[in-house]
Amino acid sequence: MEEDFTPAERDALYKAIFSRRDVRGQFRPDPVPDEVLNRVLLAAHHAPSVGFMQPWNFIVITDPAVKSRIHADFARATEEAAAMFEGERRSLYSRLKLEGIREAPVNLCITCDRERSGPVVLGRTHMPAMDLYSCVCAVQNLWLAARAEGLGVGWVSILHEDALKAALGIPERIVPIAYLCIGHVTHFEATPELETKGWRKRLPLEDLVFRDRWEETIPSPPGERVRVRGSRGSPSQKS
Question: Residue 42 and which of 89, 148, 204, 231 are 20 to 30 A apart at CA?
């Protein structure tokens, strides 16, 4: 079929998936060309959405004053978050670099307009959060497209929603989904930073896959791992 991926195209997709990283501290100041930013936004806009409602909007932020206001709220929120952990966990948290708000040349807020298709939306009648999940699909589309463009993306979730909405003039009825830092980077880490810093390791895929019912598993043959052509390791080892 003409729509089939060639082996090289398929490998490139998996390369983007497994080499994608949550970037925080490697941003370069180089501006992101408008044509590149438009391509990754177009990729986000082509995400699947419940009832084809396309509930997302994209707020592109480049003004240093706006970034500084967002960063100030992050500083307040991360101080609150640190207090929720104890002992060595709190100490490690305080040493982590968790955002690149001021360093990244572009910040982006992706939102969800839950009223865009009216009160009754095809596919959302019994699972009302599907519009929110649709916007998360847009985030992932953008993230993978950005990786293919050589751009790093960092998702900043340690923010107060009301402060974010006030800083960006987001109407009350609109839900902020993701605040992203985007830009060229000095390098992409080979392993997720939270893993290398000792925060958490990737769970083995075989421990997470059930067959037909919850916790009904079919064990893999001893030593067998799922491998993907073109990746440097198994999906349980890379992200």
Answer: 231
The side-by-side arrangement of strands in the sheet containing 151-156 is 56-61, 106-113, 174-184, 151-156
Burial of 239 (0-12, 13-18, 19+ CB in 10 A): middle
Residues 226, 12, 44, 97: is their CA dihedral positive or negative? positive
- Model's pTM, two decimal places? 0.89
pLDDT tens-digit series, residues 186-238: 999 999 999 999 999 999 999 999 999 998 876 666 555 544 443 444 443 33
For the residues of the chain, what is the DSSP string, one character each?
Answer: -TTSPPHHHHHHHHHHHHH--B-SS-B--PPPPHHHHHHHHHHHHTS--GGG---EEEEEE--HHHHHHHHHHHHHHHHHHHTTS-HHHHHHHHHS----TTTSSEEEEEEEETTTT-S--TT-SS-TTHHHHHHHHHHHHHHHHHHHTTEEEEEE--S-HHHHHHHHT--TTEEEEEEEEEEEBS---SS-HHHHTTS-PPPPGGGT--SSSTT---PPPTT-----TT-SS-TTT--
Residues 207-236 as b or e (16 or more Cβ within 10 Å = b): eeeeeeeeeeeeeeeeeeeeebeebeeebe
Q: What is the pLDDT of residues 160-180, one digit of tens each?
A: 999 999 999 999 999 999 999
